Amino acid sequence: MQGRFEPDNAGKLDLPDLTNALRGLMVRNMGIVREKTSLQEAERQVAFWCRYVLRREFNTRAGWELQNLLTVARLMIWSALQRTESRGTHFRADYPTRDDAHWLRRVVCPQTLPSKPQ
């Protein structure tokens, strides 16, 4: 079995299935209670889907929406991984307390996120 899998860019994607899988992943791993391992799992899975979806050109609303959902999911996951505290309704199980000394500020996403998950 090969360690690297190159997707067939000409193949069809099941857009409703990918959209539902993304929604499920975000509910499970990016809900109110978060932790580093589940955030990293979400980051890896979203990066995998992005390799298939973001480089394609769609001519349907469903394709454009999935591209947008993946982009926003990637930004949300990146931001959640950066913040090592609990704040408001977003609870980090691995960082249960609020940390005003370091986090009383905004998290700004860079224009280009790292291509490989952390």
Tell me what the structure shows.
- This protein is mainly alpha-helical and about 120 residues long.
- It is about 50% helix and about 5% strand.
- A two-stranded parallel sheet has the order 1-2.
Largest beta-sheet details? 2 strands, parallel
Q: What portion of residues is helical?
A: 40-55%
| First and last CA, distance | 25 Å
Q: Could you tell me the number of beta strands?
A: 2
Structural class: mainly alpha
Q: Give the low-pLDDT segments.
A: 1-8
* CA gyration radius, whole angstroms: 16 Å
Order of helices and strands: HEHHEH
Taking all residues together, what is the mean pLDDT? 86
Number of helices: 4
Task: Provide keyphrases for this structure.
single chain; about 120 residues; mainly alpha; two-stranded parallel ribbon; 4 helices; about 50% helix; disordered N terminus
Topology:
Blueprint: H1 15-29, E1 33-34, H2 36-53, H3 61-82, E2 91-92, H4 100-103
Parallel strand pairs: 1-2
Write a brief caption for the model.
By secondary structure, the protein is mainly α. 50% of the residues lie in helices and 3% in strands. The longest helix is centred in the middle third of the chain and has 22 residues, at 61-82.
